[in-house]
Design a protein that fits this description.
By secondary structure, the chain is an all-beta fold. It is built from 1 helix and 36 strands. It has a 17-stranded parallel β-sheet, with no helix packed on it. The termini are far apart.
Length: about 400
Amino acid sequence: LNLDQNSISGNIPNSICNLNNLQTLQMGFNLFEGNVPDCLGMLPQLSLLSLKANRLGGKVPNSLFSSSSLVHLLLSGNFFNGSFPESSDKSILHTIELSQNQLTGQIPSSLGNIKSLVHLRIDSNELSGSLPESFSKLENLRLFHADHNRISGKIPSPLPRIEVLRLSHNLFNGSIEYLKEFPSLSWLVLTGNSLSGKLDPELFYSVLPVLSRFEIGENQLEGDFPMLSSCLLSYVNASYNRFTYLPKLYGLPQATHIILNNNLFECSIPPIQDSSQLKVLDLSSNQFYGSIPSVLGTLPSLQFLSLENNRLSGSIPVQFSGLTSLIQLYLSNNHLIGSLDFITSLLQLETLSIRNNSISSEIPPGIGELNGLKIFDVSFNRIYGRIPEELFDLKTLSQLYLNGNLMWG
C-alpha cells in the first residue's frame, strides 16, 4: 500500500492492522498526526513501514523493534519524543531511520540485539549519554548517522564493516585512536566535537585505506597533520583545530576539497601536485610562511583559493594566470609583492581580495574583461597609477576597495 506524497491528514486508523497480509505500508510526506498504532508492529507480513515527513508524535512503539518481519523502518521528519525504543533479539531490522525527531535520553544497550542492522540514522534529535558497549555487536552496520545530538564518550569498537560514520556536532571527546578498528570507512564526519590528541601519520594509508571523505573540523586536535599523498581522499576538512605541520600534498587524483583554515600550521606551504580535480583549497588563518608554490597555478579545476591571514612573502606566482577556472581568490593580510597582471586571464573571477600586502603595480586595463567580477579589494598596498576607467564599466561590481594606495584619477 503506497500513499506517499498526498495531503492525507488525521490519525492513522487502528483498523489498518486488520490487513494481515500487508507487506509494505508507505504513507510518507503527508499530514498524518497523533500516535503510531502499536499493532503495526504485530502485522505478520509487514516488511517495510515508511511514515517519514508527517506530523506524528508520541513515543515510537517498542513493537516496531520487536517485529520478526519488519526489515525497513522509516520514521524521519516527525515529532516523536521520549526515549529510544527497546529492541528485541527477534528483530530482523536492516534499516532504521529516526532522524529529525525529538528523541531524548540514552540509546539503550538492547539496540545491540539487532544483529541484522545495516543502516542506522538518528541524526537531529536530542539524544545524550554515551553509546552502549553493545553497539560493537552490530557487526553488519555499514552506515551510522548521529549528527546533531548530545552524545558523548567514544564509539564502541570494532565495527569492521562500517563505511559511513557521521557524528558531527555532538560531545564526543578524547582521542580517536580507535579508528583503526574501522578499516572499511569511506566517510568519516566528526566535525564540532571535543576531540583531542594527535592523528596517526599513516591515517590515510594503513589505518583507513579506503577513506574518501574526512571531516574533523572544530575540534582540539593537534600535532602534525597526516600525510596527504597517493590516497583515495576526495574531501578533507580539518579547519579550526591546532595542527602545526603540514607534510607533502601530492598524488591526490580524486581530491576536490582541501580545507585546513584556522589551525596553527607554522611551515611553508608544500607543493600540491597531481591534483587535477581540486576545486577548493583553503589554508587561510594559519602561520604559513615563505613563498607561494608556483605549482598552485597549475591546478586546472581550482575555483576557490584562500591563503589570507598568513605570513607569506615573495611575488604572486605568474603561473596564477593559468587558473582559468578560479572564481574566488583571497590573499589578504600577507607580505606579498609583485604585479596584478595575472588577473586579466582569470575570466571567471568574481572575488579578488589582496588587501594589506605590498603589491607594487598598476591595475591592468584588462580588468575590464572580467565581466563577472563582484568584489575587488586591493586596499592598503602600493598600487599606483591612474584608476582605470574599465573598472567602472563592470556591471556586476558591487564592492570596490582602492583605499590606502598611491592611485589617482
